[in-house]
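# step 3/5: fold
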Amino acid sequence: MMLFSSNKDLEQAQAALEYFIQEHFSQQKERFKYGEWFEPLYFDFCEFVGRKGKRIRPIMLMLCYRAFQGKRPLTDPSLLRSALALELLHTFVLMHDDVIDRSEKRRGLPTFHKLCASRLVVSEDRERIGENIAMVMGDIVYALAIQTLHEADFEPELRARLMSKFLDYTVDTGSGEILDILLGCQDITRVNAQQIEEMYHLKTTRYTFEAPCIMGALLAGASEEKLQAIREITRPLGLAFQIQNDLVEYKALNPMEPLCSADLLEGKKTMLLQQAFLTLNEVEKSFLQMCLSSMSKRESALLKIKELIDKSGAVTFLKNRCEELFAESAQAIESNAFTSEESEALRAALDVVRQQVKQVA
């Protein structure tokens, strides 16, 4: 069984999801009538979720549901509710993550806390207030994600299993965020690749790939053996995704741009930074450590860090590592736990994801 008979089918599934998201927010509008001050926040929230993105998580849920021969059409409201719950979980993570990272842009537009701050023109402390509102709004969005999933029309036992998985993935995602923060406090000499990979797995892979694939397969009635085999596919896939994301952000890094990403100077320990450090000679390692601690010389420090990373060959190394991880994920699809039809459908799903994340232009 093919996952989709054509690209047109996939496009129709994506269109159904976008339409459902818009309709859902339109229907929810009445419950958020808390007064004229709150209304703009709901508008900003709808705009934030509605921004054009990859929609990897909801699409992967539908792909895996189809791969394991789920009986409902992909336009089924409860299936779309489950997919939307994952997108709302992602939105919650982004709102908090952007505050933690002090990011100013998301998908080329202001982050949610910046949107909030821009509306508070009368307050001298609007930046802090914007961050506070974004953190609380993120909590509301997470509650909406749980409610959206809870209201899906599935058998009670299945819905309970689905909810339990969803909550497990949320706990791991939060733990990964904490690990990211704690690794950022460490000197680069005290951080190893295994720690960074585990942080990536908890913070990104679990809710970005494992959650939608497991939830989609679970809704289709897949066995526990198949669910375990899916985990063997998603772990290397998620690591490849996060490394690719690091490379994309690094390529876009412009130290001369006032609003450029400051992850490097914020102390973020990425695979790119760690691999570069391993490759440099002792003098260059000392320069890199000095630049990472040079918060007061932001532009010059970033320029030097970029120079050292470029010289190290870490970018090429990690591009090759991504290819190895994609191959590892593809090999896991050949598991005996899957039928030939399921393996074929999962390969098609992997191709869809790879086309979304492989471009490091």
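# step 4/5: annotate
The longest helix spans residues 156-184.
# step 5/5: archive (pending)
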